[in-house]
Design goal:
Blueprint (H helix, E strand, L loop, with lengths): L2 E3 L6 E3 L3 E2 L2 H4 L5 H13 L4 E3 L8 H12 L6 E6 L14 H4 L2 H15 L4 E6 L13 H5 L6 E7 L9 H6 L4 E5 L11 H8 L2 E5 L23 H4 L4 H23 L11 H10 L6 E2 L6 H12 L13 H8 L16
Parallel strand pairs: 3-4, 4-5, 5-6, 6-7, 7-8, 8-9, 9-10
Antiparallel strand pairs: 1-2
Helix pairs in contact: 2-3, 2-12, 11-12
Bound molecules: NADP nicotinamide-adenine-dinucleotide phosphate.
Length: 346
């Protein structure tokens, strides 16, 4: 595992961290399997865990708490999130800070998360949604003040899906130590404004949803469906699955060309899978501090975490992918906007 600096905090975090939404709230989760996968990740060098109170109303946090206690001698970084008081994902454009994150609500949820995790202090607390307009409300300073209580070491924001521009002001204001943003082969737009601002202000970047909720693993088909109540039914609804699969097929074709033809041999491209390509694309960007694939299955933990270890080829380092392949991947950028069918998209 390689480690990267988590910007101004000075923490050394694994470049592949752990996304914990699925095990808290998606259909098909098995706690025993999730706990085993978390332990395997720690054994493979993962030290950064992203959870949230809303992932099963504390369930994901409690699973992490168990694993932390079983690994008490290790330095493991815990990031969690305060849900918006109005339970609105994404944050409604014209809503106020008071409707979403009044100071008292933030404090209350920090306490709840600490209890779920069995900790006295969190490494990182994030607001689970964000609007840059909230900077105009002076009570936003409450999140910074959390650091003086000793209950929180650093503060961050998790940006609304596909709104990387709606966080640039927060980064430039110096308020936050980190931003969490959707960044993957399809969603490349954080590179435009957000990443340069983070670089300038020394703010850490947590690249989330590396697999576009599973599509970039190449495992979805036209008949993919999830149990009633699983939010992926709405994410991939209304023709979105079909449109996504077309784009995934184009990537599979590119990957075949790359692995069989141009760069075949004993280089890094040999045997590269689509999930590996997806992770390498993200890691090739030095602005990224860590990416946090969601994983419940141990085989997925092993496949993903070993990507970071497999990096000694001169062809990779320090770019993780050959330059000409990166140029090709730029062409797969997909500009998306939330539609009513997508909602609520967390
Ligand atoms: N608003 C927010 O702040 C927000 C929103 C979304 C996500 N997040 C964070 O970002 C994390 C990552 O996003 P995500 O979990 O939504 O989606 P994701 O990481 O894009 O995709 C997760 C899916 O990919 C599967 N998978 C993982 N590795 C695989 C592999 N090597 N081969 C095949 N399948 C593989 C997982 O399966 P299994 O689970 O079955 O192993 C799961 O179904 C979340 O867990 C959460 O921590 C935050």
């Amino acid at each position: 595992m390689r480690y990267r600096n988590f910007a101004r905090t000075g923490w050394e975090v694994s470049e592949i961290g752990y996304g914990m939404w699925g095990m808290g709230a998606w259909s098909g989760s098995e706690d025993a399997e999730s706990l085993g996968s978390l332990q395997r990740a720690i054994d493979l060098g993962c030290n950064f865990f992203d959870t949230a109170w809303v992932y099963g109303n504390g369930h994901s946090e409690k699973l992490l708490g168990q694993v932390l206690r079983a690994n008490s001698g290790k330095k493991l970084f815990v990031a969690t999130k305060v849900p918006p008081k109005n339970q609105a994902w994404p944050a409604p454009t014209n809503s106020t800070l008071d409707e979403n994150y009044p100071p008292q609500h933030i404090t209350e949820y920090v306490e709840k998360s600490l209890r779920n995790l069995g900790l006295e202090s969190l490494h990182l607390i994030q607001l689970h949604t964000w609007n840059d307009s909230w900077l105009e409300d002076s009570r936003i300073a409450a999140i910074e003040q959390l650091k003086t209580t000793g209950k929180v070491c650093a503060v961050g924001i998790s940006l609304n899906r596909w709104q990387p521009w709606n966080g640039v002001k927060a980064v430039r204001s110096g308020l936050v130590d980190s931003v969490q943003v959707v960044y993957n082969i399809f969603d490349q737009n954080p590179e435009d404004e957000l990443f340069p601002a983070c670089r300038e202000k020394n703010v850490a970047v947590i690249a989330r949803v590396p697999f576009d909720e599973g599509s970039l693993t190449g495992t979805l088909t036209a008949s993919s469906k999830w149990a009633d109540g699983d939010w992926r039914n709405s994410y991939f609804s209304g023709g979105k699955l079909q449109e996504t699969l077309k784009r995934v097929d184009a990537l599979k074709l590119l990957l075949r060309e790359v692995t069989q033809d141009k760069m075949a041999g004993d280089g890094p491209s040999e045997g590269m899978t689509l999930p590996e390509l997806a992770l390498r694309f993200i890691l090739s960007n030095p602005d990224v501090s860590t990416t946090i694939p969601g994983m419940r299955k141990t085989r997925n933990v092993e496949a993903n975490l070993l990507v970071s270890g497999r990096g000694t080829f001169s062809e990779y380092a320090p770019a993780y992918l050959p330059a000409d392949l990166l140029v090709e991947l730029r062409k797969h950028r997909w500009e998306r906007k939330l539609t009513p069918e997508h909602l609520p998209v967390k």
